[in-house]
């Protein structure tokens, strides 16, 4: 049992806390669903990743084909690491959601501290989209040049959504 006295957030503070909890929960579902989909439809998504790493769908005239990887071992390593990363993000976000729920009726400082795991999960999710997709696949493997295997619009959309939510999620709730 906690020694901390019960705190009763105002209606406004409660509404903000509930929205942060629900959005964090939905992000956790999103990442867990991505990991699950990649496991359940392994071959389809593996093929997508393989084409990106092979760089076989970008224009033949590109002078960057030397960057291509042609190793089934590396394809599997990258793909399975990505699935684990997505599962880790989703799990951390789910744990973060439970921490927020546990601290819903606690002081603003306690609620703020409960955001830590969610911040880590969101940051790892942002790193996934920025590093794996935008930097790695998009620029290094020139995914943006592929008309069939270009995941940059989705990566950009998810990066922006996570960034916007982090800007909303991290600050203390206002007194009201």
Number of helices: 6
Order of helices and strands: HHHHHH
Question: In total, how many domains does the architecture comprise?
Answer: 1
Rg over alpha carbons:
20 Å
Q: How big a fraction of the residues is strand?
A: under 5%
Number of strands: 0
Gross morphology is elongated
Structural class: mainly alpha
Distance between the termini: 28 Å
Multimerization state: single chain
Average pLDDT figure: 94
Low-pLDDT segments:
none
**How much helical structure, as a percent, in the residues?**
55-70%
Largest sheet: number of strands, sense, barrel closure: none
Descriptive notes:
This protein has 176 residues and is mostly helical. The protein has one domain. The protein has six helices and no strands. α1 runs antiparallel to α3. Pfam families: DUF2165. Keywords: Membrane, Transmembrane, Transmembrane helix.
List the keywords.
176 residues; 6 helices
Topology:
Blueprint: H1 11-40, H2 42-54, H3 72-102, H4 108-113, H5 116-140, H6 152-169
Helix pairs in contact: 1-2, 1-3, 2-3, 3-5, 5-6
Summarize the structure.
Keywords: Membrane, Transmembrane, Transmembrane helix. The protein is mainly α.
């Amino acid at each position: 049992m906690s020694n901390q006295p019960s705190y009763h957030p105002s209606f406004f503070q409660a509404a903000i806390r509930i929205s942060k909890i629900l959005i964090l929960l939905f992000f956790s579902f999103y990442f867990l669903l991505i990991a699950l989909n990649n496991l359940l439809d392994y071959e389809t998504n593996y093929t997508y990743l393989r084409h990106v790493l092979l760089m076989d769908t970008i224009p033949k005239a590109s002078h960057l084909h030397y960057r291509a990887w042609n190793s089934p071992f590396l394809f599997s390593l990258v793909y399975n690491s990505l699935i684990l990363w997505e599962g880790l993000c989703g799990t951390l976000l789910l744990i973060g959601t439970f921490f927020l729920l546990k601290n819903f009726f606690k002081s603003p400082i306690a609620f703020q501290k409960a955001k830590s795991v969610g911040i880590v999960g969101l940051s790892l999710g942002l790193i996934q989209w920025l590093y794996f997709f935008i930097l790695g696949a998009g620029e290094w493997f020139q995914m943006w040049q592929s008309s069939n295997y270009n995941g940059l619009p989705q990566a950009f959309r998810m990066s922006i959504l996570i960034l916007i939510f982090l800007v909303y999620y991290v600050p203390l709730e206002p007194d009201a």
